[in-house]
Design a protein that fits this description.
single chain; mainly alpha; Growth Hormone, Chain: A; 2 domains; 83% helix; globular
Length: 396
């Protein structure tokens, strides 16, 4: 059965491809303490499973885009999904924390094909308003993933062990392979035979690196994502290990902050339609993100940290990320329209790098007893993002 580009099935397949990132991250968050106990690993070592996943995802984006220009979207998607499926299965049977960390890197590399090539396929098949409508529909599928993934992960832990989570991800990958092989046609109209030649790749990336506006806004987005990801990486450590909430409650808490991101994205969309310039939205989002992160530090250091005192500030912070990200990315891409594909891959790489750095910091600084580290790393990245944006405005 072939899915037509305008069909619901086509939209769902592309949405699930792009949602491999939040599914692979968020389903496993409630299992961090269980993984540590099962594999006799420290919180820092368990945190590396997240950091290496992000690193694999980041690096693969730089490779998959030009490879798909050269060889076509469908074969590269099948390779990426195949790698994701095999690595997920390997994670499910990993005998040690080192093996799990290594296979998470390859799982992330496979998942990187999803978002990169989903955007490329939409660009191949649609234009203008039609493309924006399809992206909105796909983003709806993506937005649902972080709302339900921790709850699904927590529910699996209630009836099985952490390995079943990775087993389910392997099944998702296998279903995607079948759907891609049987349901989707090749979307690219003509292959670019020079797409992977070194001089083309190096030239494009050098042009992007030399564009201060593009890199500046890409760094704003990277640091804002790092702030948000410090929460993602630290939330299970703080909420489950320190504050002792149940995995079910944790899933509901995480869903509420995911709704904050969606609300921020929706607010940004409405205000953009009404003509509010991106600069004003960025200023609002960055200032309130930094303010909420600093407030989290104050609450944590003062000893008042509880679910009810942390959650409102976390929702405000994730809402701000939803406002910041689309406007920072838009400004970055607008400055390099002639190399938008390479710029998009670069922005994605930097975003994942920011998330990986934040995850490493939280994991290695967490002492197992206090909530301070998550809040402090969030504040560090939020303030750095605001400072980068301020510097950009002064050098216009």
């Amino acid at each position: 059965m072939q899915f037509k580009p305008k069909s619901l099935g086509f939209t769902i397949i592309l949405g699930v491809l792009a949602a491999l990132l939040p599914l692979s991250i968020d389903m496993g968050l409630p299992a961090f303490p269980a993984i540590g106990a099962s594999l006799n690993a420290s919180p820092a070592a368990v945190g590396l499973t997240l950091s290496l996943f992000m690193a694999g995802y980041a690096i693969s984006q730089l490779a998959f885009a030009p490879l798909s220009d050269r060889y076509g979207r469908k074969p590269i998607l099948l390779i990426g999904c195949g790698l994701f499926t095999f690595a997920s299965a390997a994670c499910a049977i990993a005998p040690s924390i080192n093996a799990l960390v290594a296979w998470r890197f390859f799982q992330g590399a496979g998942a990187g094909a999803g978002m990169t090539l989903m955007l490329a396929m939409v660009r191949d098949l649609f234009e203008g308003a039609t493309a924006r409508v399809h992206l909105s529909n796909i983003n709806l599928v993506i937005a649902i993933a972080p709302m339900i993934a921790p709850t699904v992960g927590g529910s699996i832990l209630a009836i099985a062990n952490w390995r079943a989570i990775y087993g389910l991800l392997a099944v998702v990958g296998l279903v995607l392979i079948l759907a891609l092989a049987l349901g989707l046609d090749e979307s690219i109209k003509s292959r670019d035979l020079n797409a992977i030649k070194p001089h083309r790749l190096i030239g494009n990336y050098l042009r992007i690196l030399s564009n201060q506006v593009c890199i500046g806004y890409a760094l704003v987005n990277m640091l804002s994502f790092g702030c948000m990801f410090a929460y993602v990486a630290g939330s299970s450590l703080v909420m489950i290990n320190v504050l002792r909430i149940s995995t079910t409650t944790y899933g509901l808490m995480f869903a509420s902050t995911a709704i904050g991101i969606v609300a921020g994205l929706f607010t940004s969309k409405i205000l953009n339609i009404r003509g509010i310039p991106p600069a004003r939205l960025l200023s609002f989002g960055l200032v309130f993100a930094a303010t909420s992160a600093i407030a989290l530090v104050v609450v944590s250091v003062s000893g008042a940290a509880q679910l009810l005192t942390l959650l409102p500030l976390l929702i405000i912070n994730t809402f701000c990320y939803g406002v910041i990200a689309p406007n920072a990315i838009h400004n970055a891409l607008q400055s390099v329209e002639d190399t938008a594909g390479s710029a998009a891959a670069s922005i994605g790489f930097l975003e994942m790098l920011g998330g990986s750095l934040a995850s490493v910091l939280v994991s290695f600084l967490f002492d197992g007893h206090t909530v301070n580290v998550m809040s402090e790393v969030m504040a560090l990245f939020a303030i750095a993002s605001l400072a980068t944006y301020t510097q950009l405005q002064f050098h216009k």
